[in-house]
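Re: weekly structure request thread

Next one in the queue (82 aa):
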Amino acid sequence: MLADLIVWLIVGAIAGWLAGQIVRGYGFGLIGNIVVGIVGAFIAGWLFPRLGVGLPFGTIGQILSAAIGAVILLVIIGLFRK
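Done, posted below.
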């Protein structure tokens, strides 16, 4: 249980950081990146099956999926900030 939580936090942090690098100007710090990455993972987990998109399994696939979802989230946030 604790190990799963730690993996979620690490994947969220990496995915949030990657998304922040892709969508420039949206750095939220470590905690913010973790939150963006985890929310991005939920977005991707909901959206990808509906689009018929499948990514590789494992940690790399989780990070890529969460990062793509986080990029979508950051783009949406960017639309409302303007």
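The helical segments are 2-22, 29-51, 59-81. The radius of gyration is 12 Å.
Next request, please.
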